[in-house]
Amino acid sequence: MITVTADDNAAVLKIMRVLLGRIDPEGKHFTADTAAKAISLVETEKPDVIFLDIEMPGISGLEAAYRLSERFPRLNIIFITGHSEYALEAHEVYCSGFLCKPVNENDIRRALAHLRFPVETENKPSSKRVTVRCGSSFGVFVDGKPLRFKREKTAEMFAYLVWKNGVICTNSELLTALWCGDIEKQGFLRQLVLDMKLTFESVGISGIAEKSRGSIRLDPDIYEATGSTDTLPAMFGWDV
Which residues are CB-contacts of 208 (< 8 A; sequence separation ≥ 6)? Predict the structure, then answer.
């Protein structure tokens, strides 16, 4: 994949080079500190995606987007800005994404996974770093390497949330699945949730779980399950 990032903030350009290099190490990732330079890069490098800041000196990101969309109709334009009030105007360009600063790796991965014009490349790597193996055995992998939780029960809780496939799961439901409804395990359940959060954050992944008062769910956009999740209840002995 070929990308161009345009932003007048040098720190943002540095972060984007690092994140895009991590997401697609085989790709080419160019940066420009003005929209004019970015337009020149698009003309010469023919990128698949351009990340545009909106407020820049000279040509604004929105003006650049209009120019580019006319000349390169299949160019994926993703706005990155600290000004959410531009969202409506940005979408009038039929952009591929609108991200608010500060962005993180997961934000960019999700945007790249939902491009208006998917990038066609041979042996294109998955945009998802987390793979969950189901079937004859259960395993969690990040960038192809096994992920080990501190507590064995955390893996079972994570497996249950994978089986729920993004559906909100209450604490009561987890207690029933993991400990036959033993309410005295409430404190231990909180430890499992924290273990899961810290383990993923240790490998640079945040936001895989969305937690609210008394409930939790996984974000299915962040992980990819291989094999059949239907095998999980029997594997762990859940009474469902």
Answer: 130, 196, 200, 218, 219, 222, 223
Residue 235 — φ and ψ, nearest 5°?
-60, -40
Q: What is the per-residue pLDDT for 212?
A: 87
Contact 21, 48 (CB under 8 A): no
Per-residue pLDDT at 42 exceeds 90: yes
Domain-wise residue ranges, the chain: 2-113, 130-236
Sequence letter at residue 160: Y
d(C-alpha 115, C-alpha 215), whole Å: 31
The architecture in CATH of the region 130-236 reads Orthogonal Bundle (1.10)
As a whole-number percent, the residues of the chain with pLDDT over 90 amount to 65
Question: How remote is the C-alpha of 222 from its chain's centroid?
Answer: 5
**Residue with tokens 């859940």, as numbered in its chain:** 238
User: Of 128, 45, 50, which Cα lies nearest the Cα of 93?
Assistant: 50
Determine if the pTM surpasses 0.85: no
Percent helix, strand, coil in the chain, to 5, is: 40, 20, 40
* CATH of region 2-113, choose from 3.40.50.2300, 3.40.50.1240, 3.30.70.270, 3.40.50.10300: 3.40.50.2300
Specify the DSSP class assigned to residue 151: S
CA-CA-CA-CA dihedral for 205, 14, 55, 62, to nearest 10: -80
- Res. 125: pLDDT tops 80: no
